[in-house]
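Field log, afternoon session.

UNIT: design team B
ACTIVITY: writing a sequence onto a fixed backbone
BACKBONE:
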């Protein structure tokens, strides 16, 4: 075996991303709610997908979120979507288009991503599929290969620490401008 192959094999664990860790230290912490009753759901088994993405085809953010999820699942499984799956991955858009909060909840027939569907889709892809976006372009995204994905009952919420300022310079400044917020963010820095 040549030196390059040995080096790559040795470095592989550094770049490995394990799917389905909703409490990954690489992601922001979430607020878990009471776990709903229900059974575990085999969304992917042996590389075959057994769910359908349900979304409002007239709501552009929902269409974009569904496309993002479809691409993620296609990349991680290597298979196209099924027409009628046993389970549903449902996107529920908020009444307020400025809503930034999300919730992820399992139901008797699947998983519901509610609130800001774009943020919810990215959050689901990161926490459940192990997808990571490091920089723009295909080379900046990691899609781990998944042959089996069983989702256990779960319910959680997440949202920005400072409402209404996501993406603004103020958001970064406000997150460290006093002792209480510095102490809050210190474990994550």
């Amino acid at each position: 075996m040549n030196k390059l192959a040995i080096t790559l094999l040795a470095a592989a664990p550094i770049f490995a991303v394990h799917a389905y860790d909703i409490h990954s230290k690489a992601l922001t912490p979430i607020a878990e709610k009471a776990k709903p009753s229900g059974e575990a759901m085999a969304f992917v088994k042996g590389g075959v997908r057994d769910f359908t993405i349900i979304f409002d085809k007239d709501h552009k953010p929902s269409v974009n979120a569904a496309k993002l999820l479809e691409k993620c699942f296609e990349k991680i499984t290597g298979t196209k979507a099924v027409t009628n799956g046993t389970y549903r991955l449902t996107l529920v858009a908020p009444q307020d288009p400025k809503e930034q909060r999300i919730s992820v909840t399992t139901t008797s027939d699947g998983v519901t991503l509610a609130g800001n569907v774009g943020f919810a889709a990215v959050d689901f892809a990161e926490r459940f599929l192990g997808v990571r976006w490091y920089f723009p372009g295909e080379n900046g995204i990691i899609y781990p290969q998944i042959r089996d994905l069983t989702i256990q009952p779960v319910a959680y919420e997440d949202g920005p620490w400072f409402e209404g300022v996501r993406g603004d310079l103020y958001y970064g400044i406000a997150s460290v401008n006093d002792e209480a917020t510095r102490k809050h963010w210190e474990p994550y820095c």
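LOG NOTE: The mean pLDDT is 82.
NEXT ACTIVITY: expression trials, pending approval
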